[in-house]
Amino acid sequence: MPAADRLDPSARLPWGAGPVVCGVSPTSGSPGALVVAAAEAACRGVALEAVMAWRAPRTQAGPGTSPPPLLPWREEELAAEAEARLRGFVTAALGETVQVRCKAERGSALRVLRHASHGAALLVLDAPRRPGGSLRTGLVAPLLLAKAACPVLVLPKAGERPAWSARGVGTGEVGLAGAGGGLAR
Predict the structure, then answer these.
(1) What tens digit of pLDDT does each residue of 138-184 get?
(2) Residues 103-113 as b or e (16 or more Cβ within 10 Å = b)
(3) Residue pLDDT, tens place only, 62-112
(4) Which of 63, 67, 150, 152 is the most exposed place for a label (fewest CB within 10 A)?
């Protein structure tokens, strides 16, 4: 193998040197994941893409009937609101100077993030939320670990350190990604 190929990981990795994709929660804004994803994109010299899934609000239906379909003008309005919300999360976490492609897509978080993982160099996810919410709370990250088309980095909960021991981790030699807002040294 030529020396240049040994130094360029994208030359032999099946997912290549696409963007670093950050899955952004519509509730928390995933500030820690955005900071880590921005650092990864900068280190790799690739683009950063923030992706957030959104769903239309459920409308009430009478007994034995289906809810009415979402009107096209309403869908465009909801999509624009989701895009603006995502842009706000990105600006709050990273400021105005970092270039980020923002994509708010209608659908489940699993479907939207799985689709975004195709062609990505890395998918970064915030720590799974604590149990107690809906049945799906915290299930997206484990499912994406198995179904994503690229490597997935799931941040630990703020303040948690891995239970395993690895030389250098947490000692200043190797940074530990934390959901609390960046790389801990």
Answers:
(1) 578 888 888 888 999 988 877 665 555 444 444 443 333 433 334 44
(2) bbbeeebbebb
(3) 666 666 665 656 778 888 999 999 999 999 999 998 999 999 999 999 999
(4) 63
Token pair 């107690």 in the structure block, residue: 132
What is the DSSP code (8-state) at residue 67?
P
Amino acid, res. 133: G
What is the rounded CA–CA span in Å between residue 77 and residue 96? 24
Cα dihedral value 7, 8, 9, 10, nearest 10: -170
Upper half-sphere CA count for residue 120 (Cβ side, 13 Å): 27
User: Residue 46: what residue type?
Assistant: V
C-beta atoms surrounding 178 within 10 Å? 20
- The dihedral built from the CA positions of residue 10, 13, 17 and 21, taken in this order, carries a sign that is negative
Which architecture does CATH list for 15-57+72-158+170-184?
3-Layer(aba) Sandwich (3.40)
Find the distance separating the first CA and the last CA of the chain, reported in whole Å.
35
What lies within 8 Å, CB to CB, of 109 at 6+ separation is: 23, 53, 140
Which residues partner with 106 through β-bridges?
54
Structural domain boundaries in the chain: 15-57+72-158+170-184
Distance between CA atoms of 112 and 146, rounded to whole angstroms? 15
